[in-house]
Design goal:
7-stranded antiparallel sheet, alpha+beta, disordered N terminus
Length: 775
């Protein structure tokens, strides 16, 4: 694993003793009093290896199940907002769990920090456990708590069992920690570098008291502490049992091979991809209440030989309450790597990490430096980074036919629709919670089929959205509706899944207090692929009761209409919103993206979409160019409508700024994306061609988007659910279509500030291409 800071940042990595980003050195410095068990058997027979491989996986799963059963938190019980991990003695991942994947980035950083900074004082011994929630050491935000437990054999650390769990409340300026007004981390829950919670198998009362006293929910916090400890204790005992049965060297050999096998699997797959650079960008709006800014996030992936390098150069400077630490940024990237490139490795993430280089840029939104506010980053910038990385890895994988069925377009929740509320329950007891319904966010389109309606994003494999009745039991709320939302799927040749929406009111309480702390409301944060439309933005709406009887409110199950003067769209950052009984709060989760030009969708599938209420009849004609005759598509009118739309696109578009002027006679070599092919012209030049026309667009070194006809549209053209950004932000935003100059088909789309340069999203290395496909 290689993790570096740019040279320019080498002198600016600390703030009053706190790291900008903890990036472990190539060689850890550990006190001699702590020994690491490194001996492994020279060989392990295949049967024993398979038995141990699955035993170790089961150990990690039992670790997670124990946490789930002991924790009393809905965030754990329904959301599975945690992850257990198994690491080697020197903190290389063996397994992460099939739970929230952000956490598969943080636990090795914490363990390496502990080995470097705690081995001498207070020391590391049998029965010890360390706990931490410092985002600059290795958590997504302060609410995510990491626990690390060394497992000893004959006086040496044999391995580590670790976990991370989102705690409901750990103090700070607002209940739940989601502070939309935060300017610095001093207004957020306190952050602690790793400290010893368990010593010699006994929980330290002073640390437990300190941890629980700062929480508004001390009893729940105490229970969650026991959940993370119990999970680690179960896993540690199981590891000790395996060592006693098979011998330490054999178990260690199995661990080494698990990592080596996942590494080889990763190497084999990226070897199928030519060298090159892929780029993506999205925008987050509003850093604090009252702000009207729009802020750019950028992510670049370079593939060179057997190495992937990620950097965030081009991201705007850190600001307000939308920042992410290095750990969250790194975790977001690994969510995609795990799911797309090594989905068959049982989450053995340590292998890919050997050949991934992370280059954070301190002081930016995606790699913030202290004292930045970062508590909201886990729900905003982390998910937005997943969305960007999704498209980088997908476009790279599409260059290899063997990998094209292994990825999806962006799913929903690319900016989490946080609904954080607190107050007194219907029983008069304090509560703090977040709505977890959006764990049912949809999956994006595949290269060969539609996405999955309310299917849950791939980066939280075992999460479960709670039932309405469960939320109504836990919180003083009454649901008005919870359903999939019509016209909420990203349009495309294959469409994203439909997303989920809810509406509720306060019930049997005087009021509840909300913190609105999200982004992705004024523009999409989940870009589509190859001409597919992005997933629609988040939507927040609120209507005060104005004395209307509850029975009348319950009788009306439709969505809130902004044409109603009583309804207002909520800003993405709004502090201390009071909701009383009868006040209606409506939230729709941002949706999943499509893949391919919507005008290429099978008309019969569009008719089925309308019949199942995934899309309205109006959207069928507007988005897909399908004219229905009753329940069936009218073939002749549909063909005419689609032809008219393509012609109108070209008539309104600007001319390409880059033109191919070669001799033609192009010989097809390979597919590059779902809308582009690679060819060689009569002069031997490598060129990029439109799949829609077969004609060359530009030389391979050029930006193909500049060789397309470009149509700039308002953001509202990206989705039937998109709204005009001007209500909340000052920046003029565009939805750009890059069109095949011959056919008018969409090759790619882009959300951008007006005046922003066209993104050069794919830059393939010509030497690598020639070595792969010949001259």
């Amino acid at each position: 694993m290689t993790e570096t800071l740019p040279a320019a940042a080498a002198e600016a990595t600390r703030f009053d003793g706190y790291l900008d980003a903890y990036v472990p050195p190539a060689r850890l410095t550990i006190d001699p009093s702590v020994r690491l068990h490194t001996e492994a058997a020279d060989a392990i027979d295949p049967v024993t290896y398979e038995v141990l491989r699955h035993n170790l996986w089961s150990v990690n799963e039992e670790h997670g199940i124990t946490m789930l059963r002991v924790s009393g938190s809905p965030i754990a019980a329904f959301g599975c907002d945690f992850n257990p991990c198994l690491l080697t003695e020197d903190a290389e991942f063996v397994y992460s769990g099939p739970y929230l994947q952000f956490f598969s980035s943080m636990q090795d950083l914490n363990v390496k920090w502990i080995l470097e900074n705690r081995s001498a004082n207070p020391g590391i011994g049998p029965g010890d456990m360390f706990i931490a929630n410092d985002p600059w050491v290795g958590t997504n935000h302060q609410l995510d708590v990491m626990l690390a437990c060394p497992v000893f054999h004959e006086g040496a650390i044999f391995c580590w069992v670790t976990n991370a769990l989102h705690f409901a409340d750990l103090g700070g300026g607002v209940p739940g920690g989601w502070n939309p007004s935060g300017q610095t981390w001093f207004e957020e829950p306190p952050a602690f570098q790793p400290i010893k919670l368990m010593e010699g198998g006994v929980m330290r009362r002073d640390i437990e008291d300190m941890w629980c006293r700062r929480s508004r929910l001390p009893d729940l916090t105490a229970l969650d502490l026991r959940a993370v400890v119990a999970g680690a204790q179960v896993a540690a005992r199981r590891i000790e049992g395996l060592v006693a049965r098979y011998g330490a060297g054999v178990v260690k050999a199995a661990m080494r091979r698990i990592v080596a096998d996942s590494h080889q699997l990763f190497c084999d797959r990226i070897a199928l991809i030519p060298d090159g650079t892929w780029r993506e960008r999205v925008y987050l709006e509003i850093a604090n209440p009252g702000d009207r800014g729009m802020y750019e996030l950028a992510l670049t992936m370079r593939k060179e030989g057997g190495t992937l390098t990620f950097d965030s150069e081009g991201t705007d400077p850190q600001v307000g309450a939308i920042n992410v630490t290095y750990t969250g940024w790194r975790g977001a990237i690994m969510c995609v790597i795990n799911a797309f490139l090594v989905p068959d490795s049982l989450y053995a993430v340590g292998g890919p990490l050997r050949d991934i280089v992370f280059r954070p840029t301190p002081g930016t939104i995606l790699n913030a430096s202290p004292p930045a506010a970062v508590a909201n980053g886990s729900g905003i910038g982390v998910e937005a980074t997943v969305g960007m990385c999704n498209n980088l890895v997908a476009r790279a994988m599409d260059t290899a036919p063997q990998l094209r069925r292994m990825y999806t377009a962006n799913g929903g929740a690319t900016s989490w629709p946080i609904v954080s509320l607190g107050g007194l329950t219907q029983r008069g007891k304090p509560f703090q919670n977040i709505f977890l319904d959006f764990y049912a966010a949809p999956l994006g389109a595949f290269t060969f089929r539609d996405g999955v309606d309310t299917g849950s994003p791939y980066w939280m494999a075992k999460t479960v959205a709670p039932n309405v009745e469960q939320n109504e039991q836990l919180m003083p709320v009454l649901y008005l509706w919870q359903s999939e939302v019509e016209d909420s799927a990203g349009a495309g040749t294959f469409v994203g899944g439909a997303t989920i929406g809810i509406a509720f009111t306060a019930h049997k309480t005087e009021s509840v207090l909300h913190q609105v702390a999200t982004s992705g409301v004024t523009q999409p944060t989940g870009p589509g692929l190859y001409g597919g439309m992005p997933g629609p933005p988040n939507a927040y709406r609120f209507r005060p009761a104005d004395g209307e009887p509850l029975a009348d409110i319950l009788a009306r199950d439709g969505r809130l209409d902004l044409a109603d003067d009583r309804v207002r769209a909520l800003s993405p950052k709004e502090a201390n919103l009071v909701q009383r009984p009868g006040d209606v709060y409506e939230v729709i989760c941002c949706g999943a993206a499509g893949l391919g030009d919507p005008l290429d969708r099978d008309p019969a599938l569009v008719a089925q979409d309308v019949a199942t209420m995934r899309f309205s009849a109006a959207a069928a004609e507007e988005l897909f160019g399908v004219v229905l005759d009753g329940d069936a598509p009218d073939a002749e009118r549909t063909a005419r409508r689609r032809s008219d739309v393509r012609r109108e696109r070209l008539a309104r578009a600007g001319a390409p700024t880059v033109r191919y002027d070669g001799p033609g006679g192009v010989r097809a070599l390979a597919g590059i994306t779902g809308a582009l092919t690679l060819g060689e012209d009569a002069a031997g030049e490598l060129v990029l061609c439109s799949r829609h026309s077969g004609e060359p667009l530009c030389r391979v070194a050029d930006n193909y988007r500049e060789a397309c006809a470009r149509l700039d549209l308002p953001i509202t053209a990206s989705s039937p659910l998109a709204v005009d950004p001007a209500e909340f932000v000052d920046a003029e935003m565009q939805f750009r279509l890059f069109l095949c100059p011959q056919t008018g088909s969409v090759i790619e789309t882009e959300v951008a500030r007006a005046g922003a340069p066209v993104l050069h999203d794919i830059a393939l290395d010509e030497t690598s291409l020639r070595a792969r496909y010949g001259s």
